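To make the argument concrete, we let one protein speak, a sequence paired with a row of structure tokens, as a model reads it:
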Amino acid sequence: MQHLENTLYVMTQGAYAHLENDTVRIDVEREKRLQVPLHHIGAIVCFGNVLVSPKLMHRCADEGKALVLLSEHGRFKARLEGPVSGNVLLRQAQHARAASDVFCLDTARAMIAGKIRNSRQILLRGAREAAEAEHANALSEAAEQLANALRRVAHAADLDIVRGIEGEAAKNYFAAVSHLLRADARGAFAMDGRTRRPPRDRMNALLSFLYAMLMNDCRSAVEAAGLDPQLGFLHAVRPGRAALALDLMEELRAWVADRLALTLINRGQIQAADFEQREGGAVLLAEKGRKAVVAAYQERKQEKVIHPLLETPVAIGVIPFLQARFLARTLRGDMVGYLPFVVR
């Protein structure tokens, strides 16, 4: 079982992260703000203008701890990695399977089926809990559209069709998301479809920030399993793109990130004042909002659920690692096909 180590998020601009004996120390304006044992940390994620000492970089590389650099608002910049780990035979199997159109199609269908099922569960739950018939009906209608997409993806003849069905399902899902919001939050967090690079409204800004953290966790999981993060089965291979981590992330987006975003808004933990608008129409989380989201995300990862395949309680933060291992077993031939994580 993968032990869930903490991710240290350093968000204060001008902070200095360095090694002091066997601890990571964070200084701001030459004053100590935090000190934590290195062995308690699985990764260090730095947002924006954060300094990291060479000694700490070397120690992270030696011990296989990820050091990730993001922009101040969460966009991926770089990642420090030590020597490639994992069985080379597993990576050979991954490359061989990636050359098989049949395997890629079967795996992509499974991943997108998992994504659609989990998205549909959120809509159905919202429909059951909706106080007004208008919103319940809209959510039920969107859930039926996703059910239709689920039937179609099972018989998709090629990857392009799978991607097309996924795109259509995502469009229908995001069109209904506003019906899941508290009445007094719908105006401030109205969402006109999914927009990225840059996000054009508060909901998109919140989702993009959460997806950036989830993506980092999925990449760590893929690398921990000994797989090549660049070579996926659903997402097209492009230089510098962690296609396999993106593949793994799909089934977890709605259940981990979207659900947390809705909870933060509906509980008033994130409000309109926690965002800032830039020239050109970009909307981004402000510093206070980023800190609140990071804290909530860390808490969410510690929560436990019953894994549908293992039928045992596992921390949510461990699920990407489990799914990466199931994928590795599929590549080796120990499992007939990849089984996505699906909420019951």
